[in-house]
UniProtKB/TrEMBL annotation:
Keywords: Lyase. It is an enzyme of class 4 (lyase). Belongs to the DapA family. It comes from the Bacteria. It comes from Streptomyces olindensis. Gene3D superfamilies: Aldolase class I (3.20.20.70). This is Dihydrodipicolinate synthase family protein. The lineage of its organism: Bacteria, Bacillati, Actinomycetota, Actinomycetes, Kitasatosporales. GO terms for molecular function: 4-hydroxy-tetrahydrodipicolinate synthase activity; 5-dehydro-4-deoxyglucarate dehydratase activity; N-acetylneuraminate lyase activity. InterPro entries: Aldolase_TIM, DapA-like. The keyword Ribosomal protein does not apply.
Length: 303
């Protein structure tokens, strides 16, 4: 893979990295037509980087067949309108198979979900990501880091072995730790994506991030784009005005250990008539009083 192609991928990460929801039909299956419509709304709203099979897409509640379907629908619907960063994970053979499937369909990048395992050593973290990255050397690889124990030196070690590791979705909720980690790994070496979305974007941008992930973008693409425009221009007061606008919505998502992270986004979409509110266990739909508050917030964004 030429460095020119990776530069294109790096540019796509330095942006609003949208994590689409996965809508379900009345019978509980994935709803392809609704999903395509939600993708079109993102694309028409100016979003140019999509992560199918992210956490907002309920990655861990989907079957392998459904994850493949979501990847296929996203790449087909987006065409050349967006860069596609496919979420992959689980055991190494499953993650590798998903990454190769993404490559066959024409995706440019894969995001490797944090290994879900009670025992993660730092050297084993490198081994896990190296197995995926080496299987698809043509694709840009983006580790999704949620482990506060991981050091920047380990990421640098991974990238020494795998030059296609080009970006990082950093989701440890600690801005000082992020600043240190990025500098230990190599601030200019990777594209740093603030992996905790709009609430953390201003502080993480001040420390070196140039992109942020978003689930809120499903509901209000213009709001997310307003924030990144402010951050790119270094206008932190303007970025914080957006932060204030989205604060309550994101607090509802983050409450109780992010129990309703996806639920709140789907509820907002349901209030706008864009998809059903259902989520899969272990997530759950909102109480009636919470539904009303989410609907009021979404309506207030005049979408």
């Amino acid at each position: 893979m030429s460095s020119v192609a990776f530069e294109t991928q790096r540019a796509a990460l330095a942006d609003v990295v949208a994590i689409p929801v996965t809508p379900f039909a009345e019978d509980g299956s994935v709803a392809p037509d609704t999903y395509r419509a939600l993708l079109r709304r993102l694309l028409d709203g100016g979003i140019t980087t999509l992560t199918p099979n992210g956490n907002t897409g309920e990655f861990y509640a989907l079957t392998p067949e459904e994850r493949r379907l979501v990847t296929e629908l996203t790449i087909d619907e987006a065409g050349d309108r967006a860069a596609i960063l496919v979420g992959v994970g689980h055991d190494i053979p499953t993650a590798v198979a998903s990454a190769r499937h993404a490559r066959e369909l024409g995706a440019q990048m894969v995001m490797v979900h944090q290994p879900v395992h009670p025992y993660v050593s730092q050297a084993g973290w490198v081994d896990y990501h190296r197995a995926v990255a080496e299987a698809v050397p043509e694709l840009g690889v983006v580790p999704y880091i949620r482990n506060p124990q991981l050091t920047g030196a380990r990421l640098a070690e991974l990238a020494d072995a795998c030059p296609n590791v080009i970006g990082v979705k950093y989701a440890v909720p600690d801005a000082a730790k992020f600043a240190a980690f990025a500098r230990d790994a190599g601030l200019e070496r990777f594209v740093w994506v603030a992996g905790l979305a709009e609430p953390y974007a201003p502080s993480y941008f001040s420390a070196g991030a140039t992109g942020f992930t978003s689930g809120l973008v499903n509901v209000a693409p213009a709001v997310s784009l307003n924030m990144i425009e402010a951050l790119r221009s270094g206008d932190y007061p303007a970025a914080m005005k957006v932060w204030e606008q989205i604060r309550r919505f994101e607090e509802l998502r983050a409450a109780n250990g992010s129990a309703n992270n996806v639920t709140v986004v789907k509820e907002a979409l349901a209030s706008l008539g864009l998809c059903r509110r259902e989520v899969r266990p272990p997530s759950r739909t909102l109480r009636d009083d919470e539904r009303a508050e989410v609907a009021a917030i979404a309506a207030g964004w005049s979408i």
